[in-house]
Request: fold
Amino acid sequence: MTKAIGNIRGRHISHADLNTIQSVVVKHWSKCHAAISRHLCEQWNWRQSNGTLKDCACRAVLVGLEQKGFIELPPRRTGNTRQLHYDIDTSNIFGKLHDFSSPVLNMARSANDMVLWNYLIEHYHYLCNPVIVGANLKYLVCINERSVACLGW
Reply:
């Protein structure tokens, strides 16, 4: 049995696995981390019980191995590659909640709503772009048709 380097996200990583990872990273260096993890999942046939690739878990494995100094990943791509820009009113809102119309929670379902939600989180959240792993819900909160908050869990 091959000695394991460690256990990350429920996967035992052996020296042979590390060699496979390094070859996939080198082969797909020009691609994003998500593409690299998809290629690795396909090579390992690492899937969830529903048959989809364990892409998020694989990215966590890659980042964990990089943090421990076992591999080097390509630099993270920053910002939205589509260079979207929204004109967001960021002026302060003063008053009590009852001074305004009721807040409206809109589930981000359409592609446009999801892009807006992601844009707002990327530009205004203190972590810049936190990843919500697994099934999730995303809402845009509006007052007088103005986005005032993003909720996600």
